[in-house]
Amino acid sequence: MDEKNNTPVNENVQKPLNFIQEIIEKDFETNKFNQKVHTRFPPEPNGYLHIGHAKSICLNFGIANQYKGICNLRFDDTNPVKEDIEYVDSIQEDVKWLGFDWEDRMFYASDYFEQLYNYAVELIKKGVAYVCDLTAEQLGDYRGTPTVPGKESPYRNRSIEENLILFEKMRNGEFEDGSKTLRAKIDMASPNMHMRDPAIYRIRRANHHRTGDKWCIYPMYDFAHCFSDSLEGITHSICTLEFEVHRPLYDWFLDQLNVYHPQQIEFARLNLSFTVMSKRKLLQLVQEKNVNGWDDPRMPTICGLRRRGYTPESIRSFAEKIGVAKRDNTIDVALLEHSIREDLNKRSNRVMAVLNPLKVSIINYPDDQIEELEAINNPEDPSKGTRIIPFSKTVYIDRDDFMENPSKKFFRLQPGGEVRLRYAYIIKCEEVVKDDTGNIVELKCTYDVETKSGTGTSNKKVKGTIHWVEAQKAVKGEVRLYDRLFSVENPSGDEADFKSFLNADSLKVLKNCLLEPCLAEAKPSDKFQFERLGYFCVDLDSKPGNIIFNRTVSLKDSWSKIANK
Ligand code: ATP
Ligand code: MG
């Protein structure tokens, strides 16, 4: 990281080159692009970005940074029906937050509508594009199947003059929506379905979030994308594997008009276990209120991960670890969780918090005494220093840390047993107090003054150390515990039914948690390790007096276990 401008530099220089870097280095050798690297990240503003997009962002901006090139942000806004300014704004915020800078190079495909129209006119003039009157349904019938060649449209051999007139009339709004298309004249028998006279323009009276009602015809993705790349002088147009079969068309358009020709390169999209990664499905979850919005901390969106407590560094390091592949695969979500643990372990202060409080009265402790104990903020980083935590006759511990009838391997508190309170004393459980219904409501304990952490003279050792919070100065707070949003590894396996795999227990809200006093000051997005419980982040809606924490991730690292097997 370059501290000053937050620009990630090539973080892993010694790694072997990936296949995209190999292509770029070869292009340097042959001087294919004049020693330049110019990439772009081209989202369609029809949803919030997700962790898959983060991979693409890290790849495009990362490669440009590595080779001292540049990367554009381009909104691929050719389908006005699904697009919205809300998405345009969120995408910019997310890319910036990830630590990347497009400088003054933010573009919209809609900026090129006039130019794209002119390109289409040139294709007509060359005799390689025609206006077709087949309806959507007829077009489907004429297209054939991968094994059966398509049929040529009866309108395919219109004269250039007629096509020019009709296309202009299309633009001028003289025809109904869907009644005509402009199509490329390529090959209806091509084994590649994308080459069977694909549509270039369709008529659609839809208000566009930038061009308003200026246009009633909109260019198709394949046509708009290659020319946008060409106009911006992109060298390497990096996209996901499903576009491999579109590449001949990408090349065909550019070759027909003999314009500057970027190289399209495909890589495998990121799939994560226990996660869905399609904007359509994520939108469905939002609209049908299975989650609380795009930034619900269970969502794999960048804003969801941010709210959950993920850092940009952890996401970039994740992207670096998974690398780029040419074949589709699924990454274990445990690797993403590992990346955030690794980062938060270094940077987050440790504090104590009790999620399910159980009262502990220390019967031999002086009644009105409040003691100040010293606690270490971050054992990984001595520069973070220490803080003071109060201790008194009444403390709370987590219910899980006491068992009335424990197994042999339970080293925490039990009747007659001893445990160390972190940074404080060893206590012994003398009595278990229950209410009328038999619920344990309090433990009466004694402490041994000689066992004070750091300064005590006793050399007594116990097997368990537990966290706790002093009663009078504790801060009340809400803690939200998250589990995976889906209960199966591949929720998208069965297209129709991904929602049936939603995990009903993905969110647990604990309202009566007790937090160490210093957390009263915590601000949204502050991050801490709650000792023994995991990494937690202050929620966006948190306010003084109503502190809310999200658990980012627990401490147990299932990835290390897998990796060390
Ligand atoms: P989705 O499939 O989630 O709807 P999309 O491909 O339609 O996504 P775009 O806005 O077109 O979304 O994506 C912008 C860029 O991000 C494209 O270059 C696309 O290839 C890339 N991208 C999208 N999803 C992934 C993914 N899962 N892994 C890597 N790159 C991705
Ligand atoms: Mg897309």
Plain-language structure description:
The chain has 565 residues and is of the alpha/beta class. The protein has three domains: 19-269, Rossmann fold (3-Layer(aba) Sandwich); 279-349 and 477-563, Ribosomal Protein L25, Chain P (Beta Barrel), CATH 2.40.240; 357-467, Ribosomal Protein L25, Chain P. The chain contains 13 helices and 27 strands. The chain has helices at residues 19-30, 51-66, 85-97, 113-125, 136-143, 160-171, 221-231, 247-257, 279-287, 302-308, 312-322, 333-347, 558-563; strands at residues 38-41, 70-75, 106-108, 129-132, 181-184, 199-203, 217-219, 236-240, 263-267, 270-272, 329-331, 349-351, 353-354, 357-362, 371-376, 386-391, 394-398, 418-421, 426-434, 440-447, 465-466, 468-470, 475-482, 507-515, 527-530, 534-538, 547-553. The strands form seven sheets. A seven-stranded mixed β-sheet has the order 12-25-26-27-23-24-13, covered by helices on one side. A seven-stranded mixed β-sheet has the order 21-18-19-20-14-17-22, with no helix packed on it. A hairpin with an 8-residue loop joins strand 26 and strand 27 (547-553). Helix 2 packs across helix 11 (312-322) and helix 7 crosses helix 8. The chain starts with 18 loop residues before the first helix and ends with a helix. The relative contact order is 0.10. Residues 1-9 have low confidence and may be disordered. The structure holds adenosine-5'-triphosphate (ATP) and magnesium ion (MG).
